[in-house]
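Researcher: Structure for this, please.
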Amino acid sequence: MVNEQFAQDAKAAGVWDQSLIDEIKNSDGDVSQLSRVPEVLKDKYKTAFQQDQFRLLEAAGARQRWIDQGQSVNLYNNQTSLKYLNELYMYAWNIGLKTTYYLRNQAASKIEKATVGAAAPEPENITACSLNSDGECEACQ
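Model: Predicted structure, token format:
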């Protein structure tokens, strides 16, 4: 999904091209990792994982007093520290949040990018399994 505002800003900065699009896909949308992107754009287009989660909780805590039930507060964790998570949830509790909704963790590993670079290799010719295949099918072995 293309962020049209980022695309316009990148075009105005003269860095928008197919190789930048591929670099953005490879970095999972995190433009802060890309050396070609100007610092102004890196600061403007941060991911949810790069936002201060304590400030997000402060805003939710300010809204909470006017909400009868709970509110859907998503937290975005880009760290591996359980101490940080404990501090985050204790802070939410101390400022009076009744609940948080999802904890989104950044992936610990990278997945293959199917839309970047060369076309994916063609799959091997695998015939459908039949009961008469005499163990040639992986599932029948």
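Researcher: Any notable elements?
Model: The radius of gyration is 23 Å. DSSP finds five helices and two strands in the chain.
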